[in-house]
Amino acid sequence: MHKKIEVVGRGVDSEFFRPLKKSNSKLRLIYVGRVSPEKNLEKLSFLGKYNDLSLTIVGEGSYLNRIKELLPFAEFKGNLQDEKLSGEYSASDIFIFPSKTDAYANVVSEALSCGLPVVAYEDAGVEDRVDNGLNGFLVSTNEDFELAVNKLKDPELRKKMSHQARLTALKLRWDDAFDQQLNAFPLAIKEYHNRLRRFFPILRKVLYSFNFSHAFLGAVKMAFYVFLANVSAGFIEGISAGMRQSLISFFMVGINTSFFEFLYVRSRRLSIILPSLLTRSSCS
To answer: 221 to each of 213, 234, 243, 258, 261, how far by Cα in Å?
Structure first.
């Protein structure tokens, strides 16, 4: 069965995350993110044999002590926010991302916005932003990962990729991501109703016979809007106050409309049932 899938991305603040002039004696590589087993940071151990490379790791996690043992040559910065984080990006030359488990990895967008070429694996969930050979490298093996890092020692190649990285990030505006997500909701809701009609015809007939169908659908729609609000919580945190209020209002309209639809239909049903019950009671 054919299913239409709408991929909704995230934006990046390209004014906050921006390139700055480098002043490194060594080529500075940086990783930003959680320090945990699934991030594959141990794959970066090959960097220790290069005297012209340095590695900075920004982030913390359950695997931090182990990674410090495996990568003793790396500099660990802990968790950083705001200007300190953007400063670490901008002071670096290459962003390396050895993880294979991320669904989107917003840190890649931040790195691109700071003009950093990205080296990542093909199945890292970043192929929508990293164009292999243009603004970074997407590799399939550990050997290719090391080869890509060595290729980026070429200052001319690094300069070209840095320029393309910044151009890519300028297209990742929060306003566009917000519009894309809002436009996807009506499609998802329409598909939800289509599936309900397609897969539950018998249930609908039973509910209609008891004058309960609209109340049921109202309750389900209410739950659906609450679900959308919850799964979008991470997205809401990253947008401006005005857009956040608009998105919350969108959800609340859906929730309240569905809730009052449920109450209205149930009250109509009760207005029919209660008089008949009272009549029977008075006659008994």
So the answer is: 12, 22, 23, 6, 10
CA dist., res. 183 & res. 118, Å (int): 30
DSSP at 132: B
Query: Which two three-digit tokens encode residue 242?
Result: 């005005």
CA distance 225 to 90: 40
The amino acid that residue 130 corresponds to is V
Q: Which residue has the tokens 């505006």?
A: 173
- Buried b / exposed e over 74-106, threshold 16 CB at 10 Å, is beebeeeeeeebbebbbbbbbbbbbbeebebbb
Question: Helix 155-170 and helix 106-113: axis angle, to 10°?
Answer: 120
> How far apart are alpha carbons 209 and 211 in whole angstroms?
6
CA angle 45, 139, 49 (to 5 degrees): 25
State the alpha helices, DSSP H only, in the chain.
Answer: 64-70, 82-90, 106-113, 142-151, 155-170, 174-199, 201-209, 213-231, 233-237, 241-283
Q: Which amino acid is at 150?
A: N
- Ordered per-residue pLDDT tens for the chain, 284 residues: 445 555 555 555 555 555 666 656 789 999 999 999 999 999 999 999 999 999 999 999 999 999 999 999 999 999 999 889 989 999 999 999 999 888 778 899 999 999 999 999 997 778 888 999 999 999 999 999 999 999 999 999 999 999 999 999 888 775 665 555 656 566 666 666 666 566 556 555 555 555 554 555 555 555 665 555 555 555 545 545 555 555 555 555 554 554 554 444 445 444 444 444 444 444 44
Task: State the helix-helix crossing angle for 213-231 and 241-283, rounded to 10 degrees.
Answer: 150
CA-to-CA distance for 3 and 254, rounded, in angstroms? 24
